[in-house]
Each structure stands twice: as C-alpha cells, then as structure tokens.
C-alpha cells in the first residue's frame, strides 16, 4: 500500500448525519498512509427511501466507490440488488457492508462480529443462561447470531412485528441446531421474560436522537439484569441511564460501532486496521460532540 492510494467509500441510511463512521474510517486511512474519502448518503436528506437503492448502487459504481456501509433501514432491502453474499450475510439475511470490485457487488455482515468483540470486552463474565432481545430486524439478527455464538442458552426475541420475530427465531434455531434443543423463542409475556432473564439486549432505533424514549417500560428492569445497547448516538440512551440508576451492568453501542467498522475497513482496503486506535478515535469524537453541544 502506498501513500498515493485513494479509496472512496460511503454510508447509506436514514438520519445518519451525526454518524461517527466516516471520520473514524478517514482517520484510520490517514494513519495507514493512504487517503480515504468517506461520504454520507442520507436517504432523509435526499427525500427517498430504500426503493432508491438500485440507482444509488449504480451511481456509486459509476463514481468509483470501493464500497458502502449500509444501515437502517437498508440492511435487508439491499440484498436483492447484490451479486453475491458472504456466508455470514447469507445466513443472517442482512448486509451492512458492500464491497464494489470488478463490476460485482458483494455483501458482507460485520455487525455480528462487532457486537461479539464489544461484548467480550465490555461485559466479561456476564451470565448467559437466559436473555431477552428487543428487535429482530437486520441488526437484531446479527446480534442474536453473536449471542448464540457466545454461548447463550436461551434467547427470547421480541419485535414490534411478531412474524419477523418468529422468522428470525426459526432461522436461528435451524442455524444452531448442532447445539441440540432449540435455544431461541419468541416472547409471549415480556414482563415475565425480563423478570427471569440475566440480560437484556436492545436492537431497535429507539433511544436515538430521532427516536427518543425507551423500548420497554423501565419498571421492568431489575438489579440482577445486565443491559446492552446497539444505539451509540447518544452513547448513553434513556434505557442505559435507567439501568445504571438501578445498578445494572451496562454496555453501550460504541464498541459494536467500532468493531464492525474495523472489519469493514479491512474488507474495503485489504488492510487490517488498528482497532485500539479506532476505539480511541471514536471516544475522542464523542468528547468533541459533547464540547460542541456545551
């Protein structure tokens, strides 16, 4: 790799103006000795929805993009427009990284690995007998895959779309059947399931600046529960604030954001980044945002 090497990348999603992904990638590119230009392609700003993905992909190819990161609400909608899926993306039915190379569009999923790495570092030794997960969409499927890989014995899914929860649970049970009895089920009584759980994992947009609030009544939280988020803007959501007030162990969404980006960077550039450096930069970006708001 030489200093004259350039990469053009983009992030496709809705309401992503405050994302830390672009500066994180660009800084690591500088540190690695090449120029990396990372553009934000915000569907809200463009006034379009996921139906615009075919045209956006064509435009990205014409302009010489090396790849795209994909976030809400496009992680599943983009799949029909790709030429190939990595084994992880195919198994999960969700894509967050698209490599554009040689006229082909190859979809990957780095979310599940990102969550797994974050969890191992942020909640070491957390009990994994019974967990409740809120959200079974694209990000939720990846997180559930990570949790089962980490050794969760029972995973209880809740989603605003019950059929989506059922489909995700069935797919996970099929994928992990080598472990014996089904380990994933759909919640029928959230209060009862949370009361019996070791941990709660939140995988919906609720808690973002655009979608304020909590994904469940905070009265359902209890001291023996650990709580993990995937939302990272703000880093402390209303859910995490309530959990910390009770004395729960918590994990914010920052680690997942960093580690999914670490693997995406490698896929885009062929260079393995320094994950500790990217983590430090992510934290610095957060400090800057707080200072700007002060």
Compact summary:
This protein is of the alpha/beta class. Helix content is 41%, strand content 19%. A 6-stranded mixed sheet has the order 2-1-3-5-6-4. A 6-stranded parallel sheet has the order 9-8-7-10-11-12, with helices on both faces.
Alpha-beta classification? alpha/beta
Q: What's the CATH architecture of the largest domain?
A: 3-Layer(aba) Sandwich
What CATH calls the topology of the largest domain is Rossmann fold
The strand count comes to 12
What oligomeric state best describes the polypeptide chains here? single chain
As residue ranges, the low-confidence spans are: 288-294
- Largest sheet properties: 6 strands, mixed
CATH class of the largest domain: Alpha Beta
Termini separation comes to 41 Å
What is the radius of gyration computed over CA atoms, rounded to a whole number of angstroms?
A: 19 Å
Number of H- or I-type helical stretches: 11
Largest sheet strand order: 2-1-3-5-6-4
Number of spatially distinct domains: 2
Helix content: 40-55%
Shape: globular
Overall average pLDDT = 93
Succession of helices and strands: EHEHHEEHEEHEHEHEHEEHEHH
């Amino acid at each position: 790799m030489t200093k004259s090497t350039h990469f053009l990348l983009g992030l496709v999603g809705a309401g992503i103006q405050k994302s830390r992904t672009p500066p994180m990638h660009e800084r690591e590119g500088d540190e690695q000795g090449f120029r990396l230009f990372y553009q934000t392609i915000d569907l809200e700003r463009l006034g379009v929805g996921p139906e615009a993905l075919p045209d956006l992909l064509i435009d990205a190819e014409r302009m010489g993009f090396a790849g795209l990161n994909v976030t809400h609400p496009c992680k599943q909608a983009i799949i029909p427009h790709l030429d190939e899926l990595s084994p992880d993306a195919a198994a999960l039915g969700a894509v967050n990284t698209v490599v554009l190379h040689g006229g082909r569009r190859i979809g990957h999923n780095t979310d599940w690995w990102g969550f797994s790495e974050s969890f191992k570092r942020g909640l070491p030794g957390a009990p994994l007998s019974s967990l409740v997960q809120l959200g079974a969409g694209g990000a939720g499927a990846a997180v559930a895959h990570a949790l089962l890989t980490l050794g969760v014995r029972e995973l209880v899914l809740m989603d605003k779309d019950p059929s989506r929860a059922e489909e995700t649970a069935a797919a996970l049970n099929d994928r992990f059947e080598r472990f014996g009895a089904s380990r994933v089920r759909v919640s029928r009584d959230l209060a009862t399931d949370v009361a019996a759980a070791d941990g709660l994992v939140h995988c919906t947009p609720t808690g973002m600046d655009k979608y304020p609030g909590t994904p469940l009544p905070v009265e359902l939280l209890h001291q023996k529960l650990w709580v993990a988020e995937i939302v990272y803007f703000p880093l402390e959501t209303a859910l995490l604030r309530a959990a910390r007030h009770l004395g729960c162990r918590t994990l914010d969404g920052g680690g997942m954001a960093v580690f999914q980006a670490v693997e995406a960077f490698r896929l885009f550039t062929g260079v393995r980044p320094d994950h500790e450096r990217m983590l430090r930069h992510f934290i610095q970006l957060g400090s800057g945002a707080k200072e700007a708001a002060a």
